[in-house]
Design a protein that fits this description.
three-stranded mixed sheet
Length: 328
């Protein structure tokens, strides 16, 4: 396919990525099709990295995962946009291959699978379902589907090197048409940044917003693109308030993206409510067991407290004034 395409790169960072960030920048400069611009949206007040590989342009913006990501359109004059976190490694031809796959399927956005949920063993998959309602599916030609309970199901046995339709994707990296990202108005989700970083699945909100607003989204497997900081999430080490806010985010993500979407019938809302209630019940059961094993009741209490706080939040003036998730 032709290499005559131009793209910009938008990276969000606190400037603390160190060696991982250096690897990312160097890999971008080694691409067979090099970016026209690399914009680094660094949180205000944080020091710039002490190295410069090439054409990076640092843009100070308000701190916040959504603020920094929504700023990705600033200065962009290219048809395509590569949106990244600050710890992603790209093989030399990775961007070219993402472009080829997206154009071949007439899509608007494509993301590499960097979490590799399909590689989890059975015990981990069962635990994932019991704690969060996430479940593996057979290969049905979709990568990720968002369910009525607000969480997702994932393809448990994708084809090697497959490119699949998807309703969501890991937010670590995605390549998209600039107009598609502009079209989802991600700035409408700035309200999420009031929650502590790492407690809200803002990337799922962004990815699902592409899908629900009519854009064709793909996931590519086995691209060689690596998330260099894909570590284990040690839940038992998290303080109470972060566990509570995480549970609150479960409810709010469900409410915003599945329940309170314009056009939902009474029947659809009823089914969504039943699905979330089952997810909540399963989550409580799992956290009762976990709290007994760890002798730490905070996990159950914070989970319940967070869901109740989420119910209260949807009645606030701030939340009720938000534009609907469906823009069309």
């Amino acid at each position: 396919m032709s290499k005559n395409f131009e793209y910009s790169v938008a990276i969000r960072t606190l400037g603390t990525g160190g060696e991982k960030y250096r690897q990312e920048i160097e890999s971008l400069h080694n691409q067979t099709v090099k970016p026209k611009h690399i914009f680094v949206f660094i949180a205000e007040g944080y020091p710039r990295p002490d190295f410069q590989v090439g054409i990076e342009e640092y843009v100070p913006v308000h701190k916040g995962l959504v603020h920094q990501r929504a700023a990705s359109l600033q200065g962009v004059d290219t048809e395509y946009l590569l949106i990244l976190d600050d710890d992603i490694y790209f093989p030399d031809d990775a961007v070219e291959k993402l472009y080829d796959a997206m154009i071949a399927r007439n899509a608007d956005c494509i993301a590499p699978e960097t979490f590799n949920n399909e590689n989890m063993n059975l015990v981990h998959k069962l635990g994932y379902y019991a704690a969060n309602g996430v479940i593996a599916r057979g290969d049905d030609e979709w990568a990720i589907k968002i369910m009525r309970n607000g969480t997702f199901s994932f393809n448990g046995s994708p084809k090697k090197g497959g490119v699949y339709l998807t309703q969501s994707f890991p937010g670590t990296a995605c390549f998209c048409r600039t107009e598609a990202f502009r079209g989802i108005h991600y700035e409408n989700e700035l309200w999420i940044d009031q929650f502590p970083a790492g407690t809200f699945g803002e990337d799922q909100v962004m990815a699902y917003k592409f899908h629900r607003n009519g854009y064709k989204v793909l996931t590519a497997y086995d691209t060689g693109i690596l998330h260099l900081d894909a570590g284990t999430n040690n839940v038992h080490e998290k303080p109470y308030h972060k566990i509570k806010f995480r549970a609150m985010s479960y409810y709010l993500t469900w409410h915003r993206t599945r329940y309170a979407v314009k056009g939902n019938s009474f029947g659809e809302k009823f089914l969504c409510s039943c699905a979330y209630l089952w997810r909540f019940f399963m989550g409580c059961c799992t956290r009762v067991i976990y709290s007994l094993v760890r002798l730490q009741p905070k996990h159950l209490i914070a989970y319940i407290h967070g869901n109740l706080a989420g119910i209260g939040f949807v009645w606030t003036k701030e939340y009720r004034s938000l534009c609907n998730f469906l823009l069309k």
